[in-house]
Amino acid sequence: MILKLLIFAIAGVLIYKFFGGKFPQIGKSTHEKKLEEDTLVECEKCSTYVTVKESIIVHGKYYCSDECTP
């Protein structure tokens, strides 16, 4: 009986992983948000949208140019 339960549990995990399931990882924050280079962000001063790659980050805030940076 226990052997059948163990086999079904292993089969379930394998099927879950095969279809793209992801298990939660211990020790990593799930609330951490990563921005890709082509994601648009708003300038804190003039409200212009620029990509993360082109923006200037000062104290965690995004700016579109040197003119807008504090």
What does this structure look like?
With 70 residues, the protein is an alpha+beta fold. It has one helix at 2-18, and strands at 40-42, 49-51, 56-58, 61-63. The chain has a domain at 35-70: Wheat Germ Agglutinin (Isolectin 2), domain 1 (2-Layer Sandwich). Helix content is 24%, strand content 17%. The strands form two sheets. The protein has a two-stranded antiparallel sheet. A two-stranded antiparallel sheet has the order 3-4.
- Work out the helix count: 1
| Cα separation of the termini | 69 Å
Spans of at least 5 consecutive residues whose pLDDT stays below 50 are none
Number of DSSP strands? Answer: 4
Overall mean pLDDT score?
A: 83
* Element string (H = helix, E = strand): HEEEE
For the largest beta-sheet, the strand count, sense and barrel status come to: 2 strands, antiparallel
Strand content: 15-25%
State the oligomer. single chain
Strands of the widest sheet, in order across it, are 1-2
State the shape: rod-shaped
CATH class of one domain: Alpha Beta
Rounded to the nearest angstrom, the radius of gyration is: 22 Å
Please state the second-level CATH architecture of one domain. Answer: 2-Layer Sandwich
Residues in helix, %: 10-25%
Structural classification? alpha+beta
CATH topology of one domain: Wheat Germ Agglutinin (Isolectin 2), domain 1
